[in-house]
Amino acid sequence: MAIAAKPEIPPWIPPPETKEDLDWASLKTLDLSKLDSEDPKDIEQLLDDTRHAIKEDGFLYLTHYGIPLEKLHRQFAIAQHLLDGNVITEEEKKRLEIQQHTGSYAGYKPMKGWGAGNGSYDGIENFTFYSPEMENPDKRPKGLEPFMDEVKEFWTYAHDEVNRKLLKLLSRVLELPDDYLWDNVQSHDGEVCAEGYFRFVCYRPMEKGQEGASMRIHGHHDIGTTTLLFSVPISALQVWNSKAEKWQWVKYKPGALVINLGESLEILTGGHFVATKHRVVSPPSDQQHLPRLSCAMFCSARGDLKVSPLQDSPMIQREGLKKEGVYGEFAKLLDAGMDVPDHDTWRKARRAYAQQGPSKQVTINKIKYSEEIFNGIKVYVPV
Known about the structure:
By secondary structure, the chain is α+β, with helices and mostly antiparallel strands. Helix content is 29%, strand content 20%. The protein contains 10 helices and 15 strands. The protein has helices spanning 40-57, 69-84, 90-95, 131-135, 148-173, 180-184, 263-268, 314-319, 325-335, 343-353; strands spanning 29-31, 59-63, 107-109, 124-129, 197-203, 215-220, 226-230, 237-241, 246-249, 257-261, 278-281, 292-298, 361-364, 367-374, 377-382. Strands 1-2-10-7-12-5-4-3 form an 8-stranded mixed β-sheet. A 4-stranded antiparallel β-sheet has the order 6-11-8-9, with no helix packed on it. The chain is globular, with a radius of gyration of 20 Å.
């Protein structure tokens, strides 16, 4: 039986970078290939850079991680085909629309709001894949089927190879065996993305009259362990510089992965790893007319794992716990003898209310923060 030819789709051509002089964040660039170096100096320098990045910034660039640029651009072409090629039918948009109140982002998000068709136009269209969306063709657009072999291969490598190596590096910082975080923390329950998810997303230019709207995604921390975000030319991602107390732009590095750490790792490391505060804003004026295509994988801890520090780490035993930030709020529950949630409960609660806008604003040291409360835990993010 002859196999049908795969449809041809337009290539993804990176749009031009901004020419504006922006306040760029100074982030460490880690060459992941050095993790396999036979030179001890290479390894030690890599660990030093990693320690700085995860304790100070929570954001870093990752290069030489094993995915060729042409494969990366091909994945962007598939994302472009899905979101810009009229591939998702109107029936599929309704049937597959996200139901965020359940604590899941699975499926199609239209260009309004974040909760099952609620909200006004925000110009953000995406499709989010959990394991069921990878395994069941009925849970994804039929027009994507010819490309699912490539999609699975790409994201399986990102999860099982790139993220595993990253966790190996982080395990070494914690002075634990190389595969400690992979074996004991990272979820493997499901196809490709386990209990995490990956997403194709397009930020479209705002509608007429809304061009000046600056906020696309409110300031937040990611919930899980690590986020693998492929760097894109349209500047819109900003990271909070806690020392300078200001937002700074994340610069485009062709082919690089932008890595940020989530709340799970901050809590699991007792505050030693920083959950990165970040947001997405309107691009600079010379890019505001262009769509911003993005591809990202959000990795998660095992759902049955309690959200509390890893006591096995010699570094944590030696340096103690840092009772501040997100972990500080968990520490209050631990000190009071209260039960803390497992990761599955925490994720569902956080996702159900994420991106609804700050519910309450408070001022701390002259900086405005949004205050959100989940399971009795306060989370503060700069407005």
